[in-house]
Specification:
The protein has 176 residues and is an alpha+beta fold. It contains 8 helices and 4 strands; from the N terminus they run ααααααβαβββα. The protein has a 4-stranded mixed sheet, sandwiched between helices. α1 (3-18) crosses α6, α2 runs antiparallel to α6 and α4 (53-64) packs antiparallel against α5 (70-81). It is globular and about 55 Å long.
Length: 176
């Protein structure tokens, strides 16, 4: 993500680690992130200088007070104060990476042309675990523009075996 979201995530992770709440904060942030995804204008509203800070922080309290750990709620209020609440989801992604790293887990994103079968998923996860030397949590999505093959991103490293990429490479050779 961005340098700013990474710095904020690192600061929150440090506080969570000191208080022994890394997992609770992680789960709370993921819950809060879903609210942002379900309501795309929420982050914009919380970042808007046209809306008084008191109204923005009241909206955070109304949505999350008593439902998430205080650090998670205060974190979002801090982003509101600095006018960057629209970067919340980026911060959550960076916190997730820190949390998984602390647990010795890698995260993989797999994009394929068609839905993979359970057997294919199990085989891929087994190979990724062997390749990384640690447990791998895998998220799958389908992109028909891939035509065939798949791409895998593990901890920011991309392995692209898609037909789409191969066609793009052929086009680049032809265009030279």
């Amino acid at each position: 993500m961005t340098r700013i979201s990474k710095e904020y995530a690192e600061a929150l992770f440090g506080l969570a680690a000191e208080s022994g709440q890394t997992e609770q904060i992680y789960l709370a942030l993921e819950t809060m992130r879903r609210v942002f995804e379900e309501n795309p204008d929420y982050g914009k509203m919380l970042s808007s200088p046209a809306i008084p800070l008191s109204e923005r922080t009241a909206a955070v309290e109304e949505a999350f007070s008593g439902k998430v750990p205080e650090y998670a709620e205060f974190f979002l209020k801090l982003l509101c104060r600095h006018g960057i609440a629209d970067r919340f989801c980026g911060c959550v992604g960076d916190y997730r990476a820190l949390y998984l790293e602390s647990k010795g887990v890698s995260r993989a994103e797999v994009i394929s042309a068609v839905e993979l079968t359970d057997v294919q998923k199990q085989s891929l996860e087994k190979k990724l675990t062997a390749l990384c030397g640690r447990k791998v949590i895998t998220e799958y999505s389908v992109d028909p523009s891939y035509i065939g093959g798949l791409s895998v991103s593990v901890d920011g490293k991309i392995m692209d075996g898609s037909v789409k990429r191969r066609l793009r490479e052929i086009k680049e050779v032809i265009d030279r």
